[in-house]
From TrEMBL:
It comes from Luteimonas endophytica. It is found in: Cell inner membrane; Cell membrane. It is a single-pass type II membrane protein. Essential cell division protein. May link together the upstream cell division proteins, which are predominantly cytoplasmic, with the downstream cell division proteins, which are predominantly periplasmic. Pfam families: FtsL. Belongs to the FtsL family. Part of a complex composed of FtsB, FtsL and FtsQ. Keywords: Cell cycle, Cell division, Cell inner membrane, Cell membrane, Membrane, Transmembrane, Transmembrane helix. The lineage of its organism: Bacteria, Pseudomonadati, Pseudomonadota, Gammaproteobacteria, Lysobacterales. It comes from the Bacteria. This is Cell division protein FtsL. GO terms for biological process: cell division.
């Protein structure tokens, strides 16, 4: 009877040890994945900040006016060219 009990306790101890090893291995894998994902998140945040800055630069009214004048040849109409239509 004592041998059976010792065998059962030994088997339970081995199974528990294997479970602990498996849990620690899984924890290490998940932690490594978390670290990679946090790095990717940080890179995306940096890119997002750069894109916001670029968008702000491109959408400035002075920049739009400059492009309209230089590339498209646009200009404000002279007063004589403005026609007001009333209903």
């Amino acid at each position: 009877m004592a041998r059976v009990l010792m065998g059962i306790l030994l088997l339970a101890n081995v199974i528990t040890a294997i479970g602990v090893v498996h849990a620690r291995h899984q924890h290490r894998q998940l932690f490594a994945q978390l670290t990679r994902l946090e790095g990717a998140r940080d890179e995306l945040n940096i890119d997002f900040g750069r894109l916001q800055l670029e968008q702000a630069t491109w959408s400035e009214s002075n920049r739009i006016d400059q492009v309209a004048r230089q590339r498209l040849g646009m200009k404000f109409p002279d007063t004589a060219d403005i026609v007001v239509i009333r209903p």
